[in-house]
Write a structure and sequence with these properties.
The complex is a heterodimer of chains A (365) and B (271).
Chain A lengths: L3 E10 L2 E11 L4 E5 L6 H9 L6 E6 L2 E2 L10 E4 L11 H11 L4 H15 L14 H13 L5 E5 L7 H18 L2 E6 L2 H7 L2 E6 L2 E6 L1 H6 L4 H6 L6 E10 L2 E5 L4 E3 L5 H4 L6 E6 L4 E3 L9 E11 L3 E8 L2 E8 L10 E6 L5 E4 L8
Parallel strand pairs in A: 3-8, 3-9, 6-7, 7-8
Antiparallel strand pairs in A: 1-2, 1-4, 4-5, 9-10, 11-12, 11-14, 12-13, 14-20, 15-19, 16-17, 16-19, 17-18
Helix pairs in contact in A: 2-3, 2-4, 3-4
Chain B lengths: L2 H30 L4 H5 L12 H9 L2 H33 L2 H12 L3 H13 L6 H26 L3 H8 L4 H9 L4 H17 L2 H6 L7 H9 L6 H21 L1 H9 L6
Helix pairs in contact in B: 3-13, 4-7, 4-10, 5-7, 7-10, 8-9, 10-13, 10-14, 12-13
The complex binds adenosine-5'-triphosphate and magnesium ion.
Chain lengths: 365, 271
Amino acid sequence: MSNVILKNVVKRYGSVAAVDDLSIEIRDQEFAVLVGSSGCGKTTALRMIAGLETATSGDIFIGDTCVNDMPPKDRDIAMVFQNYALYPHMNVRDNMGFGLKIRQMSKKDIDARVEEAADILGIQALLARKPKELSGGQRQRVAVGRAIVRKPKVFLFDEPLSNLDAKLRVAMRAEISKLHRRLGATIIYVTHDQVEAMTMADRIFIMHNGALQQIGAPMEVYRQPANRFVAGFIGSPAMNFIDAKVALEDGAMFIDAGGFRVRAPETFRSRLEPYLDRPVIFGVRPEDMSLHDATAGTGNSIKAHADVVETLGSEIFVHLTCEAHSLVARMEAPDSPPMVGDMLEIDLKMAKTHVFDRETSQTIV
Amino acid sequence: MNKKLLSNILFYLIVIAIACIVLFPFLWMLVSSFKTQVDIISWPPKFFFTPTLQNYQKVFEEQDFLKYFLNSTIVGVVAVGFSLVLGLPAAYSIARFTQKKLSVFILLARLMPGISFLVPWYIVFSRLNLMDSYLALILSHMLIALPIVVWIMSTYFNTIPREMEESAMVDGATRQYAFFAIILPLSGPGIITATTLSFIFSWNNFMFSQVLSMEKTKTLPIAVYNFLSYAEVDWGGVMAAAVAIMTPAIILTMIFQKYVVKGLTMGAVKG
Ligand SMILES: Nc1ncnc2c1ncn2[C@@H]1O[C@H](COP(=O)(O)OP(=O)(O)OP(=O)(O)O)[C@@H](O)[C@H]1O
Ligand SMILES: [Mg+2]
């Protein structure tokens, strides 16, 4: 069993809590992605699991063993660092074999393991090179290779793709996912890129300011964000947030944003009732907005000015102003895209919208 | 004439002027070491003369110059060697665990005038019957070499990313193993800088050797000084001896020029 458990883990630097009471369980063979904006404590959490940093308080378990006082070398983990940390004075072969050499494995076995890993990653031709003779993408592969030769229980990745160009990043994403299935190991993967989290994770762990916000499968955190932070973090472009209040008129429930008013679906009713006349935040994803279609007629459309129209090929992003509110809509490119300055009528898929408590930022619906 | 040319000329004039001031005593010394006593003190100075090696002959024959040379080498090499053995781990610890107190303490040893150590040393070493011993001299020279090693190397270790040894530790190494297998092999340039500089400073040291050494362990600078203490100063001999002393330091500096300059610009060294 190689699950990883953090129980009430806190890490303080002076008065700053880099990680604040983090309790999570990462299951055996799971691909867990720790995601959050810069400085939220992801690296710190990973370094504590690796044993490179001691927790101020709390317990960490790998498998059934409490590893609080165990040095990194005994934890049977491998880590891929953000800057790869390849040893500059060793060639690729020695870099990858370093951990095995320490374990006093025979030269023959080391070579066999290194070549097997090089084969998986397609870097056989590079084995004799020094790290400085490699491109960024090749270095990244070597760093992954150095991790997998040891066949550890748990892999830790700290933003391994952030130094690669966009195209390579997409390719490596798929490769790491494949690797995970092939190795059947537990992977804890840290990133600030929600796309990486969505595409690779079995479960996403979202952090903010050192504290855990939500745990869930990618579609779960996308569809049912626990709070406003998660809602804004997952999805691109980010969800539109509009200050509004809940109003009741002629027995129908409305979300009133001042500039516009939309009718809340019946399913929202019971949960919105306690918030009548109270300030809330209305959240709608750009992809849940579309140009008004008279035939579909949801009756929930708003009128807005097109400020900027970005064409991406198959899609367009339209930046809109509706009274005092700015919104972004994302839609399939129509045959005649809207022009800047047009007054547009936009339909909202109300069933997919969210309402948040303005004080606590927690999701109401 | 345009402005740029003018400022260029001015620049080179200043450079030449400074070079003259710095190099003049050295050249004077070099030239004089090949002159006879008569030529040296003749006025106006003679620019054309028959060079003689008699000064060098005298230095190497009359005085046991080779012995002093050997003494300086032994003291320098052993003091620098021990300083590396003690200083490298200390510097690593300062760099990685931000040991402010330790580093300030070592800096303090560097900033205190050397002479303030001499009285206690003199008492301690004579009580221990260690006067005129290599041990006493080597220990005193470590006061010169160790701070240089620690300061240069802690600055250098700071430039090596932490992830280097962290990666090794996750790979299964102890911190000590990582230090020897990963960090030291990457520290070549820093170690060369520290070694060269601290050796030169030990080589040139006068004060500690003057007090703590006598006939047996006398080092080169003391030997030169001895030329001055004769009734009549043998200028040719002094000059030749000085040139002989400086030569190894100059050769070292030239070989490791790149590293020495780097070390000096790290601001880690007091002249
Ligand atoms: N050694 C340290 N001393 C003091 N503060 C630290 C230290 N390491 C991290 N911190 C602080 O802890 C917080 C979390 O840092 P951490 O490196 O874990 O962030 P991160 O989520 O990995 O961010 P990024 O995405 O930028 O890598 C930050 O506010 C950081 O300034
Ligand atoms: Mg980080």
